[in-house]
Amino acid sequence: MANLSRSDVIHKADLDQLIELLGRLGDASVAARATAALAVHRFIEARGLTWETLLSPALLVVTDPATAFWAHLQTLRSMSVAATDIAMGQAEPSGRLGGVVRTWQLAAQALLDWHQGVLRGVEEQDFIRHRLAAGTLSNAQAQLLAEIAARANLSWTR
Taken in order 129, 132, 69, 18, is the CA torsion positive or negative? Predict the structure, then answer.
Protein backbone atom coordinates (compact mmCIF):
# COMPACT_ATOMS: atom_id res chain seq x y z
CA MET A 1 0.00 0.00 0.00
CA ALA A 2 1.41 3.43 -0.90
CA ASN A 3 1.92 6.02 1.81
CA LEU A 4 -1.44 7.54 2.59
CA SER A 5 -2.24 10.81 4.23
CA ARG A 6 -5.32 11.06 6.43
CA SER A 7 -7.07 12.87 3.57
CA ASP A 8 -6.53 9.86 1.26
CA VAL A 9 -8.81 7.67 3.40
CA ILE A 10 -12.59 7.82 3.66
CA HIS A 11 -14.76 5.44 5.63
CA LYS A 12 -17.49 3.59 3.76
CA ALA A 13 -20.19 5.08 6.01
CA ASP A 14 -18.89 8.58 5.19
CA LEU A 15 -18.84 7.78 1.48
CA ASP A 16 -22.44 6.55 1.70
CA GLN A 17 -23.41 9.78 3.46
CA LEU A 18 -21.68 11.86 0.78
CA ILE A 19 -23.48 9.93 -1.97
CA GLU A 20 -26.80 10.63 -0.25
CA LEU A 21 -25.98 14.35 0.02
CA LEU A 22 -24.94 14.52 -3.63
CA GLY A 23 -28.21 12.84 -4.61
CA ARG A 24 -30.08 15.77 -3.09
CA LEU A 25 -28.46 18.16 -5.58
CA GLY A 26 -31.08 17.08 -8.12
CA ASP A 27 -34.04 18.16 -5.98
CA ALA A 28 -36.70 20.26 -7.73
CA SER A 29 -36.52 22.89 -4.98
CA VAL A 30 -33.81 25.55 -5.33
CA ALA A 31 -33.65 25.85 -1.53
CA ALA A 32 -33.20 22.09 -1.11
CA ARG A 33 -30.40 22.09 -3.69
CA ALA A 34 -28.66 25.01 -1.95
CA THR A 35 -28.99 23.28 1.42
CA ALA A 36 -27.57 20.07 -0.04
CA ALA A 37 -24.66 21.93 -1.66
CA LEU A 38 -23.78 23.58 1.65
CA ALA A 39 -24.05 20.22 3.44
CA VAL A 40 -21.65 18.66 0.89
CA HIS A 41 -19.20 21.55 1.35
CA ARG A 42 -19.30 21.20 5.14
CA PHE A 43 -18.96 17.42 4.90
CA ILE A 44 -15.80 17.71 2.80
CA GLU A 45 -14.32 20.50 4.91
CA ALA A 46 -15.04 18.74 8.24
CA ARG A 47 -13.07 15.72 7.09
CA GLY A 48 -10.13 17.70 5.75
CA LEU A 49 -10.82 16.46 2.22
CA THR A 50 -10.66 18.22 -1.13
CA TRP A 51 -12.52 17.58 -4.37
CA GLU A 52 -9.20 16.54 -5.91
CA THR A 53 -8.73 13.89 -3.22
CA LEU A 54 -12.32 12.68 -3.46
CA LEU A 55 -12.14 12.27 -7.21
CA SER A 56 -8.68 10.71 -7.15
CA PRO A 57 -8.40 7.05 -8.12
CA ALA A 58 -5.98 6.66 -5.18
CA LEU A 59 -8.71 7.36 -2.59
CA LEU A 60 -8.99 4.44 -0.17
CA VAL A 61 -12.48 3.56 0.99
CA VAL A 62 -12.19 1.89 4.38
CA THR A 63 -14.82 -0.77 5.04
CA ASP A 64 -13.33 -2.80 7.85
CA PRO A 65 -11.21 -2.27 10.99
CA ALA A 66 -8.19 -4.14 9.58
CA THR A 67 -8.02 -1.87 6.54
CA ALA A 68 -8.47 1.18 8.76
CA PHE A 69 -5.61 -0.04 10.97
CA TRP A 70 -3.23 -0.44 8.02
CA ALA A 71 -4.28 2.92 6.58
CA HIS A 72 -3.60 4.45 9.99
CA LEU A 73 -0.14 2.85 10.10
CA GLN A 74 0.61 4.31 6.68
CA THR A 75 -0.49 7.71 7.94
CA LEU A 76 1.79 7.34 10.95
CA ARG A 77 4.63 6.30 8.66
CA SER A 78 4.23 9.49 6.69
CA MET A 79 4.39 11.42 9.99
CA SER A 80 7.13 9.48 11.73
CA VAL A 81 8.89 6.14 11.38
CA ALA A 82 9.23 5.97 15.18
CA ALA A 83 5.46 6.34 15.59
CA THR A 84 4.91 3.42 13.21
CA ASP A 85 7.39 1.31 15.17
CA ILE A 86 5.52 2.10 18.38
CA ALA A 87 2.18 1.21 16.77
CA MET A 88 3.63 -2.08 15.49
CA GLY A 89 4.89 -2.87 19.02
CA GLN A 90 8.53 -2.65 17.93
CA ALA A 91 9.38 0.27 20.24
CA GLU A 92 8.20 1.63 23.56
CA PRO A 93 6.38 4.95 23.44
CA SER A 94 7.82 7.82 25.40
CA GLY A 95 4.33 9.29 25.45
CA ARG A 96 1.01 8.56 23.81
CA LEU A 97 0.70 8.52 20.04
CA GLY A 98 -0.80 11.65 18.62
CA GLY A 99 0.39 14.70 16.83
CA VAL A 100 -0.52 18.05 15.44
CA VAL A 101 -3.05 18.17 12.60
CA ARG A 102 -4.15 21.09 10.45
CA THR A 103 -7.70 21.61 11.68
CA TRP A 104 -9.92 20.85 14.65
CA GLN A 105 -12.06 18.80 12.26
CA LEU A 106 -9.17 16.43 11.53
CA ALA A 107 -8.43 16.11 15.26
CA ALA A 108 -12.09 15.40 15.97
CA GLN A 109 -12.29 12.79 13.21
CA ALA A 110 -9.08 11.15 14.48
CA LEU A 111 -10.61 10.93 17.95
CA LEU A 112 -13.64 9.13 16.53
CA ASP A 113 -11.64 6.91 14.18
CA TRP A 114 -8.55 5.96 16.14
CA HIS A 115 -8.69 7.23 19.71
CA GLN A 116 -12.10 6.13 21.00
CA GLY A 117 -10.41 4.81 24.14
CA VAL A 118 -9.82 8.35 25.41
CA LEU A 119 -13.47 9.34 25.01
CA ARG A 120 -15.45 9.32 28.24
CA GLY A 121 -18.79 7.91 27.23
CA VAL A 122 -21.33 8.49 24.54
CA GLU A 123 -21.69 12.14 25.53
CA GLU A 124 -18.20 12.98 24.27
CA GLN A 125 -18.70 10.90 21.10
CA ASP A 126 -22.00 12.69 20.43
CA PHE A 127 -20.42 16.08 21.16
CA ILE A 128 -17.69 15.43 18.58
CA ARG A 129 -20.11 14.04 15.97
CA HIS A 130 -22.47 17.02 16.39
CA ARG A 131 -19.64 19.54 16.13
CA LEU A 132 -18.34 17.85 12.96
CA ALA A 133 -21.84 17.88 11.46
CA ALA A 134 -22.34 21.56 12.36
CA GLY A 135 -18.88 22.51 11.13
CA THR A 136 -18.39 25.14 13.83
CA LEU A 137 -17.04 25.47 17.37
CA SER A 138 -17.64 28.17 19.94
CA ASN A 139 -14.69 29.14 22.12
CA ALA A 140 -16.03 26.98 24.97
CA GLN A 141 -16.55 24.02 22.61
CA ALA A 142 -13.04 24.47 21.20
CA GLN A 143 -11.65 24.37 24.75
CA LEU A 144 -13.58 21.19 25.55
CA LEU A 145 -12.46 19.52 22.32
CA ALA A 146 -8.85 20.55 23.02
CA GLU A 147 -9.07 18.93 26.47
CA ILE A 148 -10.46 15.71 24.96
CA ALA A 149 -7.84 15.73 22.18
CA ALA A 150 -5.04 16.27 24.71
CA ARG A 151 -5.88 12.86 26.21
CA ALA A 152 -4.87 11.36 22.84
CA ASN A 153 -1.91 13.75 22.54
CA LEU A 154 -3.64 15.48 19.61
CA SER A 155 -3.80 19.16 18.79
CA TRP A 156 -4.45 21.33 15.76
CA THR A 157 -2.88 24.40 14.22
CA ARG A 158 -5.93 26.39 13.15
Answer: positive
